[in-house]
Amino acid sequence: MKTPWITLLLAIIHGATGLFILVISAWFIAACAIAPAGFNYMLPAVVIRALALLRIASGYGHMWAGHRDLLARTAGLRHRLFKRLTNHRIGRKAQLADALSEHTETLASVWIACISQLASALLLLPLLLIAGVMLSLPGTIWLALLGIGWLILTVWVVVKSLAIAVKQVAAQHELTEQSEAYLRCSSLWHLYTQAQHERPTAMRLWSLETRLNTLSQQAVWLLQALCFVMLGLYAWYAGAEVYANPLAMILPLVLFAAPDWLGRAVATTTFAARFQNAQDALASLEMRKVNLQPAVSGHVRLQNFCAAGRHVAPVSANLPSTGIVTVNGASGAGKSSLLQAIAGEIPYRGRKYCAGITLQPGLVENWLYVEQTPVILQATLRENLAPARKICDEAIRQVLKDLGLSSMKNLNEWLGAGGRSLSGGERKRIAIARALLAEKQVLLIDEPFEGLDVFSCKTLAQLFNKIAETKLLIIATHIGVSQLQVTTSVTMSQACQSDKLCEHA
Ligand SMILES: Nc1ncnc2c1ncn2[C@@H]1O[C@H](COP(=O)(O)OP(=O)(O)OP(=O)(O)O)[C@@H](O)[C@H]1O
């Protein structure tokens, strides 16, 4: 049997044993009071004891199986979410972190936190009702009314909590975005005292959470009140003959304990809101699919080409199949955007051809964009340089030497958090080394000379000249390096700066 069903079964056994203990104890207390000589006290006592033991065992079992299921489900959901990310670019990273930590866990806990509680209540109420009818239990009608009252309360909690959930989703998005923006500018807090007053606040989120908790509490209190009223009415209307019947004690005890065995089921229905929240959050994750096209090399032609949705001017140019192409222009003219659009990293407008073939939106297998702000993986130097495939140490060391990084000898040295901190120039050259080792035919390198000293610029330019004998290097730069043997240049004008955005294709 699958773990969620075991969880459910154990929860039902747990609930049922609790109810049986209640029923048998109620009868036993009354029966003892009016029992004739020779009444067998042992048997009911043993049954109650056995039920108590079964209840304890099933309670622990339910927790054990439920948590086991929860862990497996959480892992499965996170795995599926990571799979969804394959070949996608992520919009808001903070939202994804929330999704991976909190929302997946909420979704995974549905069996242990909600279904098993509800199922147990839904099964026990009719069972009790049937038993009441069959045993002609005094006050069975009150049991039916209790069931109806419980159902109405449950529906009321679900409807109200779902309305709160919608507001929670919006508040959570707002808080995540505000926090991300606020934390990103932490280095400026000492300059900008106003920031202290503009701290993101979780008050709205907390007040909604409190409303949700209050709602479940109110539902339990209402159930309790309903039981007391029914108890009073039962006592009021019960005739004297009822009190001579040991079964007459069962209903009062069941009603007294109802908030205990039914209350949790009402309270957990606010889980529906959390579940809905988590589902919405996962569904609304911002991610964009990136296609991967087969390798292609040759002359590149751009026709009225520009990054979509950015303040940049379209470009038309013919680029050689090998050599160095520099992309020049004022800061903000769109050099990085053009490189990213050619590489297929972002949507574009216009057309791009390679070897006469029209390239579709998406990445090209043998083209690689080297970002302006290098990504350093939290991994060893070796893994940073060869993240995708195994490359022999000699080749890695040679590239490091060519880039003036021969002081980095230990390829097992940890970089990033908890490891070696790198200077801006070192980060830049590690990203370039990674690109060179990837052995792509077209490299689109964003500001490679930024942050480098004159000598390093010269070394890098000479290396680029050598590589460009067999590959096409498209380099965005506003730093002129005289040693760089440029085949052709593309100059970005700022035509779009003051007017409209380059719209989506
Ligand atoms: N992610 C983005 N979304 C929307 N607009 C963007 C984005 N990134 C940049 N832009 C805008 O696109 C325009 C071109 O930016 P881009 O970074 O391509 O210029 P650049 O020439 O590389 O600048 P720099 O030399 O300063 O790095 C700018 O007006 C910028 O505000």
From TrEMBL:
Q: Where in the cell is it found?
A: Cell membrane
Source organism's superkingdom? Bacteria
How does this chain sit within the bilayer?
Multi-pass membrane protein
Q: SMART domains, from UniProt?
A: AAA
SUPFAM superfamilies xref list: ABC transporter transmembrane region (SSF90123), P-loop containing nucleoside triphosphate hydrolases (SSF52540)
**Residue stretches in coiled coil:** none
Sequence ranges assigned to domain ABC transmembrane type-1 in this UniProt record:
5-178
Pfam families given for it? ABC_tran
> Any idea where the ABC transporter domain is?
287-504
Could you cite one Gene Ontology molecular function of this protein? ATP binding
Matches recorded under PROSITE patterns: ABC_TM1F (PS50929), ABC_TRANSPORTER_1 (PS00211), ABC_TRANSPORTER_2 (PS50893), PROKAR_LIPOPROTEIN (PS51257)
Going by the UniProt record, its keywords in alphabetical order are:
ATP-binding, Membrane, Nucleotide-binding, Transmembrane, Transmembrane helix, Transport
What is the name of this protein? ATP-binding cassette domain-containing protein
